[in-house]
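Model: Ready when you are.
Researcher: Fold this.
Model:
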Amino acid sequence: MKDVLLIALFAFLGAAAAGLLGAGVLRLLRHRSLVVSLSVVAGVAVTAMLAGTLTVARAMFLSSHDLYVVTTVVAMAALVSLATAVLLGRWVAAHSRELTLATRSFGDGGIFAAPAGQPTAELAELARELAATSAKLDSSRERERALEASRRELVAWISHDLRTPLAGLRAMAEALEDGMAADSGRYLRQIRTEVERMNGMVGDLFELSRIQAGSLTLTPVRISLYDLVGDALAGVDPLAREHGVRLIGDRIDEVPVVVDGKEMSRVLGNLLINAIRRTPPDGTVAVAAHRSDGGVVLSVTDGCGGIPEEDLPRVFDTGWRGSHARTPPAGAGLGLAIVRGIVEAHAGRAEVRNVQGGCCFSVTLPAA
């Protein structure tokens, strides 16, 4: 037993010396190629075995012939180990270069295509993560292009919608100034109407800029959805009467929500005004609210005739106003974008779907 312990001790001392030397070499070469590192690891393993063997051999006073045989065996093992390490290293390095080139392609705006046959599980996992990241970047680029397009459309529409009333205001002001207005009171009322419309447009732009900048400040309070919807219906009732549209709000559950009352009133107002303007005379706009598994769902259903399927994903985009047939005389396509921004600020979501005879806008909010 004592001899065995001595042999183990000598072998450990020899192998430890080789291991410490190999660790120092690896530290010096840590920034070099993987082939070099694998070669050093293989060399350390063989050297450690050789050092331990030689130490034990000298302690056991083996003959020169026996020592030569042991050294030759270890040397052959070293050659095989080094050759295997070099082959493995070159294989992994080659696939790493392929992965680098593929990564560079999607970094320049392309799509990442993972090279086939990754040699290790780690590289395969890295390739999958890079493919997922590439897909997210591509989706982000698409959203950015769509957002930029909607912004350009918004600027064009805002310019058009402001130019028309400004031209009318200028003409009416000149007529009043020259004393050419037969009915000055009518001119003044028209000027006030146009100014209020432009003021609402500027207010929408300011609200949207706060939402997009992340500076919208909410003051949430516990409030009954029944009272919130009731106030909103009362506010748009004159507009509904003017357009000959019937409002229905008899399916409102008295469920509490924690929201900013002012901002959510704006959400409901925008949805109801949008629905009333899109619904033909003698049509119906219905409001419903109920509790569901995902929270509290508030919906506004109109009689607009539906939205083309290809336009449904764009309904809440900034500047979207639909087809010319459905575009009202006023508005710059900001109302629904404001709705989505305010709802998402409340950790909710806004959706739209087609129903028979029209479409249904739904807002889902966290339950109180």
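Researcher: Now this one.
Model:
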Amino acid sequence: MTRHFLRDDDLSPSEQREVLDLAARMKQDRFSERPLEGPQSAAIFFDKTSTRTRFSFAAGVADLGGSPIIVNPGEAQLGAKESISDTAKVLSRMVSLIVWRTHAHAGLEEMAENATVPVINSLSDDFHPCQILADLQTIREQKGELRGLTATYLGDAANNMGHSYLLGFATAGMHIRVAGPAGFHPRADIIADAERIAAETGGSVTVLTDPAAAVAGADAVITDTWVSMGQEAEKAERIATFGAYRVTPELMAEAKGDAIFLHCLPAYREYEVAPEVIDGPQSVVWDEAENRLHAQKALMAWLLKESK
């Protein structure tokens, strides 16, 4: 059976650990795994601009012995003159992996339903599961065992990051708290899925509005930009809405003394995070950014192995 990675819970708890263990080994020996030797090719579609996703996947495919084929908006017929299902069937005969950074999650599902090679969600409007693998790798490097740790995500908890933190961290057996203003909480079905997973792994899921209560005693504090792509016209309104969720030194002081700070980047200092936090000693955002490379390489190698 071909394995895909569209949502964080496409990996079971044991599978997630396997991928993270492999990521740790590959970080120590960057060129140890060469499943794309040949080179085989990977199709990497970008419907949205990117820095970390583009470089980590392109470099990662090359590290694995393969050749990345980057496709920018307007450079292919995908979803326009040619259906997603037809594209999936054609590409499956030419490449070994399909990676897609897009808008509607339904497109990724259609791609996976028709592809005979692994399909990876490198970002959709609903989920950002590759980022969560990198975050878990980063937290594990700093804290050791993930199970039982408490992490807090602050800001727009209704976005793809809020959804993926619930699912991915619950899968790891962590206690995940997300906090945002009323009207900016995760979808009810995602909360229910995360709660079901947490009941199996020993983790927990908590949705709050009070940022201080959410951060209290946390091992990791996480935020994201308040103004994502396509929301630029709402910038002033969103800054006003999320102002209480800015991660300041005072808010970080509510977490554990050895708490770490994560941000998936790009970051906007003085909006969602104070410079003293993101550029301070508790910040691990640069390790987190690097780990996109290692976590995604491990994911690709694992999916290729399982699909064979």
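Researcher: Key takeaway?
Model: Residues 285-307 form the longest helix (23 residues).
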